[in-house]
Write a structure and sequence with these properties.
Elements lengths: L1 H8 L18 H57 L6 H21 L5 E9 L5 E9 L4 E3 L3 E7 L5 E8 L7 E9 L16 E7 L5 E3 L8 E10 L5 E9 L8 E9 L5 E10 L5 E8 L7 E9 L6
Antiparallel strand pairs: 1-2, 2-6, 3-8, 4-5, 4-7, 9-10, 10-13, 11-12, 11-14
Length: 315
């Protein structure tokens, strides 16, 4: 403001003509005219000062608008947060809504359950042509288990000819759970009249649950088993021996036995193959396992998993 005032004070007023010298009889009218002109000059200067002051005040007004907009944004955010908390609903109301949603999910899955998924798999062929494989199976449903699903393994040679097509019935797969199943499949095949074993070039896996083989349950596999891995060593037979203990916290599906799967992994964490063994388990008690891997391929690491074993499924 001081700068504007200095600029205004520095504006020269138009020089006024000096009054004509006159004797004592100088005109009073001329004197009045001169004073009016001087007053007009000051009025103009004050007008310029008012315009300058108005211009300086504009940013303050804009700043006030910004503050109002910020407050509005804060209020909108608070409103959205209230909506996220349930639009003012009580905890009891939110629980009731969640229960209703769960019931709707259970009804939908009972009528049309989602299929089991094989999310990873791996295999290797032994010298005798048999194939050791592992499939990682997930049940994406939340309320139903797949009872007695069937894994199908199809092996083909380099020309696409089918060497074997085998179906293997597996134990039930609980909802929201991931299972690892390792099996041996295939049929030794001779190439023509020679004794050479033909190994498959490709092996494809699928899993299906027979119609009507879904059952509602609230059981989950997670946190049921504790596995203590004691490492791996070379056995006298030349096989790899994996040892450790497994403890079941409860009996899932009324099973009194559990399967222990050793899954071999490559450097990227993908499945190479695996082996398994069935052991008797009692909730709360640790049980030893030793799994022998014959003709095991090279692997970067391994993992050990456990799951219920239904006695009705053939070992």
């Amino acid at each position: 403001m001081a700068v504007e005032a200095d600029r205004i004070s520095a504006v020269p007023l138009k020089a006024l003509p000096a009054p004509l010298a006159s004797p004592d009889n100088a005109s009073t009218k001329d004197t009045v005219m001169i004073m009016k002109l001087r007053n007009l000059g000051w009025v103009a200067a004050c007008g310029m000062l008012a315009v300058s002051l108005a211009g300086c005040a504009a940013p303050a007004n804009n700043q006030g608008v910004a503050v109002d907009q910020s407050q509005a944004a804060q209020q909108a955010t608070a409103s959205r947060q209230d909506d996220a908390k349930g639009n003012g609903q009580t905890q009891e109301q939110r629980d009731a809504a969640a229960q209703k949603a769960d019931e709707a999910t259970a009804k939908q899955e009972a009528a049309q359950p989602a299929e089991l998924q094989i999310v990873d798999s791996g295999w290797f062929a032994s010298d005798n042509g048999m194939v050791d494989f592992v499939v990682e199976v997930q049940n994406p449903n939340h309320t139903v288990e797949a009872v007695a699903p069937v894994i199908e393994a199809v092996g083909k040679d380099e020309a696409g000819n089918v060497l074997f097509d085998e179906k293997i019935e597996t134990p039930a797969v609980l909802p929201d759970s991931t299972y690892y199943y390792s099996y041996v499949t295939g049929t030794p095949t001779l190439a023509g009249s020679t004794d050479e074993v033909v190994k498959p070039a490709t092996v494809d896996f699928t899993i299906a649950t027979p119609e009507g083989s879904w059952k509602a349950t609230d059981e989950k596999l997670a946190d049921t088993y504790a596995v203590q891995d004691n490492g791996v060593k070379d056995s006298e037979m030349g096989a790899k021996e994996f040892t450790g203990t497994v403890t079941a916290s409860k009996a899932l599906d009324d099973a009194t036995q559990s399967r222990v799967d050793v899954v071999l992994l490559d450097k990227d964490g993908h499945i190479e193959g695996g082996y398994f063994k069935v052991v008797d388990t009692e909730p709360g008690k640790a049980v030893d396992y030793d799994i022998f891997a014959i003709d095991a391929p090279d692997y970067a690491s391994y993992a050990v998993y456990a799951s219920p074993w239904n006695e009705d499924v053939e070992k």
